Amino acid sequence: MKYLLIGALAPACLLSVQPAVAWDGFDADSSDLVEIIPDALPVAGENVDVRDYATDQTTTCLVKTVSRNSRTVEVVVRTPDGGTRTLVMEGR
């Protein structure tokens, strides 16, 4: 009986929808929590989606620079309205 239950649950786990993985950090100016989607180290000139937890909005931004530190990664992005944001992300 135990094997029958495991056999029924295994395919259900494999077919479940996985959420998009995001990279967590914070905005250096406002200290609001943010996440970058996708969960990969961006390069200058790439577009990334930045989700701001404070406003619960996602904005597509252009990556200007990426700087690696010993424990964090600083990503400077340009917002659609022309402003810049420095995002301090968890180290890689």
Oligomerization category of the chains in this entry: single chain
| Count of discrete alpha- or pi-helical segments spanning 4 or more residues | 1
Uncertain regions: pLDDT < 50 for 5+ in a row? Answer: 13-18
- Cα-atom radius of gyration: 18 Å
- Largest β sheet strand count, sense and barrel closure: 6 strands, antiparallel, barrel
Structural class: alpha+beta
Averaged pLDDT: 85
Please give the share of residues in helix: 10-25%
Listing every helix as H and every strand as E from the N terminus to the C terminus, the arrangement reads HEEEEEE
For the secondary structure, the number of strands is: 6
Q: Quick one: overall form? A: globular
Query: How do the strands of the widest beta sheet line up side by side?
Result: 1-2-3-4-5-6
Q: Report how far the terminal alpha carbons are from each other.
A: 44 Å
Give the strand content.
over 45%
